[in-house]
Amino acid sequence: MLNPHKYLIICVVMSQWDADLHARIAAAIKKHRGAGRSAQWLADKTAELGYPISRAQIANYESGRKKNLDIAELLILAAALDVPPMVLLYPDLPAGQVEIIPGRIGTSWVAYLWATGIGPSLTSPAAAPTAGERLIAAVRERSDLMAELAHLHVNAGLYGYDAALKASLESRRTEVAARISRLNAEIHEAGGVINDA
Description:
Layout: H1 4-33, H2 39-48, H3 55-63, H4 71-81, H5 85-89, E1 97-101, E2 104-107, H6 108-115, H7 131-158, H8 163-189
Antiparallel strand pairs: 1-2
C-alpha cells in the first residue's frame, strides 16, 4: 500500500526545489537587466524579438508573484538580455552552489556541463555515456574538426610554396575529413541531422 506521507514529503521537497529554481532565475534576470533598464525596456526587447512578454509578467516574475516561467519565455528573455539561457538557469558561474535537480547539489559549472551534455549523467555518473551524451560529444567533436578543416584549407593556400609543409597539411586534412565522415555517420545513426549543403 502507498504511504501518503511519503509522497507528501516528496511533493514538498520538489515544490521547494522548483521555487528555489524560479527564484534563482528571477534574480538572474533582474541582475542582467540591470538598474538602468526597466521591466518595460525588457518587455519591449521581447516584443522586438517576436515573442512579447509584458512588463507586468516580467515584474511579477522578478518579484516572485509569478511562480513559473515556460521554456519559450526563458529563451526569449535570455535573447533579450543577450545572455546564454544557461546563465539565467545556473547563475554565479563557475563556483556558485545550486540544487541542479532535487537532491543534487553542485556548482553552477557542474550544472552547466550536465545541462549542455558535456558532463556526465546526474543520476548515473559512473555509467557509460548515454545515447544523448554520445550524440552531443560527436556533434561537438565534428564542430571542432570542421573549424580545423577550414584552417587547414587556408594554411595549405598560404604555405603552398613549402612542399613538405603542404604535404603535412594535406595529410592532416585527409585524416580530419575521414573523421568527420565517421562522425557524420554516428550523428545520423543517433538521430541527429547533418546538412552540409
